[in-house]
Design brief:
By secondary structure, the chain is mainly α. It contains ten helices and no strands. Helix 2 packs antiparallel against helix 3, helix 2 packs across helix 6 and helix 4 packs antiparallel against helix 5.
Length: about 220
């Protein structure tokens, strides 16, 4: 099983070698580390957690014209090519299909402890200092405004509206990032999210003060 992981790490590094910096190998590595930390605190299939963490963004729909089928398909093809057990492949694919936020209003078709762990690990990388950096990097990548006081956040978006949003990056904090703390699944994930959430709130307070010319 360790060879599956070692080979997959090499593969993912190659596939994501030119990826946008918020969704590159380093993102995968951070999610993997978060997932392994959480996995130590709860009974789970560690191999499933490892593979799902490594492959969850192998082909993010944001970079494939919104097609959500490519990522699970590429992950499945890869795992089949290295002879991963069929039951493990099926579980990992289901995790990848159900991990994303997608506006926060999509009911998951599947649930497992392993999904909860990897989902928490991925969400942790979307908040705190790293989350702030990733949000603004992606906003720059898409040529979006930092902030526009005249453009209010849209809450409770459906999946398609969320995917098509071109709103300023600050809006993304309210539409997703600040919502994640209360959507964590595991006790460890919830505890880790508290400090990162508080940091984002502090950042926003400073941001608005500086925007208005305050100290």
């Amino acid at each position: 099983m360790s060879r599956w992981i070692d080979t997959t790490i090499i593969h993912v590094k190659q596939v994501l070698s030119n990826a946008e910096a918020g969704h590159d190998w380093f993102h995968i590595e951070r999610v993997y580390r978060n997932a392994m930390h959480i996995a130590q605190t709860i009974e789970c299939n560690v191999t499933v957690v490892q593979l799902a963490a490594l492959l969850h963004d192998i082909a993010d729909s944001k970079f494939h014209e919104g097609d959500e089928s490519i990522g699970p398909l590429k992950a499945k093809e890869w795992m089949e090519s290295i002879a991963v057990d069929a039951t493990v492949i099926n579980h990992v694919v289901k995790i990848i299909q159900n991990i994303s936020f997608k506006g926060g209003n999509i009911s998951q078709d599947f649930n497992s402890v392993e999904l909860q762990i990897v989902q928490d690990a991925d969400r942790l990388d979307a908040i705190g200092a790293i989350g702030i950096a990733r949000a603004f990097h992606y906003g720059g990548f898409k040529n979006r405004l930092l902030y526009d006081p005249n453009v209010a956040p849209i809450m409770n978006m459906d999946k398609e509206t969320y995917k098509k949003s071109t709103a300023p990056t600050i809006n993304h904090f309210y539409e997703k990032l600040l919502l994640l703390k209360n959507r964590m699944n595991t006790p460890t994930g919830k505890a880790m999210a508290e400090k990162r959430h508080a940091f984002m709130e502090q950042f926003l307070s400073h941001f608005y003060a500086e925007w208005e010319g305050g100290e």
